Each structure stands twice: as C-alpha cells, then as structure tokens.
Amino acid sequence: MYNLPQPPYILIAVGLLMSLSSGVVFAKLIKQLVQDWSENPATCNIETMRGLTLQIPYLGTASGALIFLSSSLQLFGFTNLVAYSICLPLTLGTGLVVWIQLTKILDKMERGIKEEN
User: Fold this and answer.
1) What is the largest CA-CA distance in the chain?
2) Is residue 26 in a domain?
3) Theoretical Cys-Cys bridge with 12: which of 27, 57, 60, 71, CB 3.0 to 4.6 Å?
4) Which residue range(s) make up the domain with 110?
C-alpha cells in the first residue's frame, strides 16, 4: 500500500502569517517614509528608502508568499521539489516586477525633489 505524505498544513499557516505580518510592516514603512518626504522633502533621503529599511520586510513578504504557495501546491499532491520549482520562479518574478515599480516611483519622487531645488 502506498501512503502519500501529509501536506504541510503548518507551513501554509506560517507562510501566510509571515507574508501578512511582513506586508503590514512594509506598508506602514512606506506610509511613514512618504509622509516624512511630503512634510520635508529637502531632508528626506530617497536612497535610504531603498535600503534595508524596505528590503527586509519586502523579502519577508516574498518569502512568506513562496512558503505559502508551495505548501498549498503540496495539498494537491505535488512533491516538495515540484512545488518549489513552480513557485520559486513565480515568486521571484513577481517580487522583482513589484520592486522595480517601487524603485521607479521612488525615482520620480527624487526627481521631484531635485526639480524644486
């Protein structure tokens, strides 16, 4: 008799909670940085916005999404290797596109600061 391995229900919950909590932190940081910038654009440094301040919660969100998606695929009988092989490029691609868009928005903010000065 062939026994299928149990799906990683705990990893589904961990990935979801990790992604949601990191996403909330990321959103609050973006709101705070934009508020600081709008109040005093001359003293706000756009480069620090792109630094580890935003990268760590963003990577936490992406990592949580990867764990959640791949664990969810395992519910349908996919092996670890197949599930992560599908979800890793999907998560990396989506995360890269979103990060590029965020960088473009920050560049526009920075150009707005330089045009005012």
Assistant:
1) 75
2) yes
3) 71
4) 9-116
Residue 99 included in any domain: yes
Whether 4 is covered by a domain: the verdict is no
Q: What is the pTM of this model?
A: 0.84
Specify burial of residue 34 (Cβ count, 10 A radius: 0-12, 13-18, 19+): middle
pLDDT at 2: 57
Instruction: Specify the number of domains making up the chain.
Output: 1
Residue 1 covered by a domain: no
- Determine the Cα–Cα distance for residues 45 and 106; give it in Å rounded to an integer: 10
CB 52, CB 7: distance < 8 Å: no
Q: How confident is the chain (117 residues) per 10-residue block, as mean pLDDT?
A: 72 96 94 82 70 88 96 91 96 95 84 61
Half-sphere exposure of 80 (CA within 13 A, CB side): 4
